[in-house]
Design a protein that fits this description.
Number of strands: 10
Mean pLDDT: 90
Radius of gyration: 23 Å
Strand order of the largest sheet: 1-2-3-5-4
Order of helices and strands: HHHEEEHEEEHEEEEHHHHH
Distance between the termini: 10 Å
Strand content: 5-15%
Number of helices: 10
Low-confidence stretches: 4-13
Structural class: alpha+beta
Length: 399
């Protein structure tokens, strides 16, 4: 029941002998621009210069980051510019690689200890037993730690290669419930261990995509195959329920368990709308701010959507009372994460199987594509009912 991607389009060419001199020169000028845009950028030099060293430690970078690589793009042929080797990573500090030992794709993250002094500590804290083995732990798990020679300020952390949470739409309200439940439970685990994340947002929430996307995915275009030539095949979150993860602990801090009200100066992460940061007050409880971050993420990603990034979904008004309390201006009046989890579970008890199996309609999208998706959804829905698949996805249930 995997969803089939589109077939690749055949390559076309513009034969130079059939072009006028002006058209030929325009093609050559465009080609020069493409070569310039796809060439290795300065912030990628670090990875190229450490490719051989990384390989001795068990991690092979893709061809783009091997010494001597240059973009190989013929001037008069159409080439897919979504090919991973023709585009840099979205962030200078990260790069993907293959673990030579098991062949799995991983993510390498370069961290400056002077700029982010607590990131390694917090990441290792959640990646070490017994916390690493706790099923409530939704922090991205650390696979390895590397120390580049001649760079005493740098540490390279090795993580699983995760998929973006927006890589495919939610097919049922049950999938939305599972996503929010995991995020709230994961944040509860983080807070119970006296850590504030301080930068929660949709970009810093990821999911395990290995089973959802069996053919892999493109690191810059999550819905494409790694070579960027076609849509990748995928399953729904009900067919292959993913685990969701918090990533990026660059602004995170651990606090003294005996201090019930730690105070921190404002520090802006990806979400710059925190109400208390807009005031003249000098310090705040970061756990209260985390509640706002989590609530605002659900509000923007699930309920309302945004102008550009997220679609949002109709039929999610059952979440509004809780989210409204989580994002209220007065930090002290926001519920604790324990209260959030309790209230959310009470909300879920009022949602019947019909609602949970229903398809949430995106607030933005094509009507015709939506109709096709609706028909496909009903085919899956009937199948799941016959198989008695739970309306809220469970990784223990067969599909």
């Amino acid at each position: 029941m995997a969803q089939e991607g589109n077939k690749p389009k055949p390559s076309t060419s513009a034969e130079p002998e059939n072009l006028s001199p002006q058209a030929r020169q325009a093609v050559l000028d465009l080609h020069a621009t493409i070569i310039q845009k796809t060439a290795l950028t300065e912030f990628e030099f670090f990875w190229r210069d450490h490719a051989a060293w990384l390989e001795t430690h068990g991690y092979k970078l893709r061809p783009r980051y091997q010494p001597g690589w240059e973009p190989d793009i013929p001037a008069f042929r159409v080439v897919s510019l979504t090919n991973e080797n023709l585009v840099p990573m979205a962030r200078a500090a990260i790069v993907d690689a293959i673990c030579i030992k098991d062949g799995k794709r991983v993510l390498l993250k370069k961290i400056s200890k002077s700029k982010h002094p607590y990131e390694v500590e917090v990441t290792k804290f959640f990646g070490t037993a017994p916390l690493a083995d706790d099923p409530r732990n939704h922090c991205v798990q650390l696979r390895d730690t590397l120390y580049p020679p001649e760079h005493p300020d740098l540490t390279i952390l090795v993580f699983p290669f995760l998929q973006q949470i927006e890589a495919l739409p939610f097919d049922t309200f049950g999938e939305i419930v599972d996503f929010i439940r995991q995020i709230f439970s994961g944040l509860q685990f983080i807070h119970q261990n006296h850590v504030a994340h301080r930068d929660i947002g949709a970009p810093n929430l990821m999911m395990d995509g290995d089973e959802l996307f069996p053919d892999g995915w493109n690191q810059r275009h999550a819905d494409l195959t790694p070579d960027g030539k076609e849509q990748t095949n995928f399953f729904t979150r009900t067919q292959r329920p993913p685990k969701y993860y918090f990533i990026d602990f660059g602004l995170s801090r651990r606090y003294d368990p005996s201090d019930p009200n730690p105070q921190e100066e404002p520090i802006f992460g990806g979400d710059r709308t925190v109400p208390e940061f807009q005031t003249d007050k000098e310090s705040f409880n970061p756990f209260h701010t985390d509640i706002y971050y989590a609530g605002n993420t659900i509000r923007r990603f699930i309920i309302e959507g945004t102008d550009i990034e997220w679609t949002g979904y109709y039929g999610t008004d059952f979440l509004r009372p809780l989210i409204k309390d989580m994002v209220q201006d007065d930090p002290a009046k926001r519920p604790t994460i324990d209260e959030v989890v309790s209230r959310f579970e009470n909300i879920c008890k009022k949602l019947g199987p019909w609602k949970l199996r229903s398809r949430p309609i995106p607030r933005r999208g094509s009507i015709f594509k939506g109709l096709r998706n609706h028909i496909d959804h009903w085919k899956r829905r009937i199948y799941f009912i016959k198989r008695r698949v739970p309306p809220i996805p469970s990784r223990q249930s067969p599909t």
